[in-house]
Amino acid sequence: MDWSDSAEQAAFRTKVQGVIDQMPDRYKAGEGDWERDRNNEDAGRREDARKWTESLAQEGWVAPHWPKEYGGAGLSPMEQFIFKMEMARADAPSVGGQGVSQLGPTLIVHGTEEQKAEHLPKILSGEVDWRQGYSEPGAGSDLASLQTRAIRDGDDYVINGQKIWTSLAHLADWLYVLARTDPDAPKHRGISFLLMDKHTPGISIRPLIDMSGRHHFNETFFEDVRVPASNRVGDENRGWYVGMTLLDFERSNITGAVSSRRTLDDLREYLKTSEGKQRAPGYAQNRLNVADRYIETDVMFNFSFRIISMQDRGLIPNYEASVSKLFNSEMNQKIALTGTRVFGLYGQIHDSADQRAPMKSKLTNQYLVSVSSTIAAGTSEIQRNIIATRGLGLPRG
Ligand SMILES: Cc1cc2nc3c(=O)[nH]c(=O)nc-3n(C[C@H](O)[C@H](O)[C@H](O)COP(=O)(O)OP(=O)(O)OC[C@H]3O[C@@H](n4cnc5c(N)ncnc54)[C@H](O)[C@@H]3O)c2cc1C
């Protein structure tokens, strides 16, 4: 299979690289994080986020997959793939968070004209950051059993309940939430999709610090929160189908393939340096493990290309997306494990500022952070179930 660019694709790739070249210096050094920068107390970081948003917005590349009429770039699947690949190669931060990847496409399909006019421009300008309130302490893989209750009262819903694992909710401005509006209906049919200003009275957010020391997750509590009924997206009790609208074309996981290859390249180069030779005990097994990880990144590239070639032909990847997600997340963990093992006891140094830490603890940190990658967006067990039933035709239950 020849995956090289056509003349048009090569020209588009060059154009993307040109815009990426204008990234703020801190972003070029791999330190960009739009969500943490945009309201940062450091004015320089705020300015970096603003400038980068502006550079992407000029091309419509804040939301490359949205239709042009809504302010996106209307790129073809192959152009989106090239765009994502170049962004990942340069470690360039995307802008707009889940507003761009999830809420915007959902509103474009299910929202009213008023909802689109109100929310889409603020997502594109970076003014409003959105986060997802789906999971609950008793509802993760079996999301449809969620218990957060929304009761209609005049022109409002009154919300009570709790969400968990609400990523970056502390940095967001608005939340999109699934809540139960009919407790007597079969579980998928009694749910509505609601938009909430995070500053509405009765919403409280409590941090959950993960084992790497990061504040990424939160618990989100709703106590008599009043949300206008006009903030419901889609029909009452049909929110499950709204919430499952997946228009994100990043199902190829090309970002994962590219950044894993970068990490391995960095590891390979470091192992050749005198410091690297000194930090790595040099067991023959290390070489074999690093070679295995290289093979796996090659496999991952091919999974990514398979998905994009399907999307380019108008097909919707199904179990193929599960294969790609499963393989990518497990590969990510294996690379981190290999990286920490290669360095023996040095691999346990977590503090990136420690002079003895190999590669500024990059792989040790990845080891801790990547544990959650096989849980997020559908656990590996759920992905295997999909592959077994939809891909292999094995019976359920
Ligand atoms: C990095 C990360 C970010 C996240 N961000 C968000 C967010 O922003 N908003 C949000 O709402 N949620 C978020 N989540 C939550 C995520 O959606 C859930 O963690 C996930 O759906 C799994 O649910 P659970 O944690 O309740 O585990 P459970 O569903 O309780 O699963 C526990 C174990 O049982 C297994 N299991 C469950 N059902 C089956 C089955 N049918 N067959 C075989 N095994 C099964 C699972 O694989 C798992 O090993 C995030 C999670 C992570 C890790």
Outline the structure in words.
This protein is of the alpha+beta class and 397 residues long. The protein folds into three domains: 7-95, Butyryl-Coa Dehydrogenase, subunit A, domain 1 (Orthogonal Bundle); 130-238, Butyryl-CoA Dehydrogenase, subunit A, domain 2 (Beta Barrel); 254-391, Butyryl-CoA Dehydrogenase, subunit A, domain 3 (Up-down Bundle). It has 14 helices and eight strands. It has helices at residues 7-20, 25-28, 34-37, 43-59, 77-89, 97-110, 113-124, 239-243, 254-272, 274-279, 284-312, 319-342, 362-369, 380-391; strands at residues 130-133, 149-153, 156-164, 174-180, 191-197, 203-209, 215-228, 232-233. The protein has a four-stranded mixed beta sheet. It has a four-stranded antiparallel beta sheet with strand order 2-3-7-6, with no helix packed on it. A hairpin with a 5-residue loop joins strand 6 and strand 7. The radius of gyration is 22 Å and the shape is globular. Flavin-adenine dinucleotide binds at residues 131-135, 140-141, 163, 165-167, 372, 375-376, 379, 381-382, 385.
- What is the string of SSEs from the N terminus onward? HHHHHHHEEEEEEEEHHHHHHH
Strand content: 5-15%
The value of Rg in angstroms is 22 Å
Could you give me the name of the CATH homologous superfamily of the largest domain? Answer: Butyryl-CoA Dehydrogenase, subunit A, domain 3
Strand order of the largest sheet: 1-4-5-8
Q: Quick one: overall form?
A: globular
Poorly predicted tracts of residues: none
Q: Which small compounds were modeled alongside the protein?
A: flavin-adenine dinucleotide
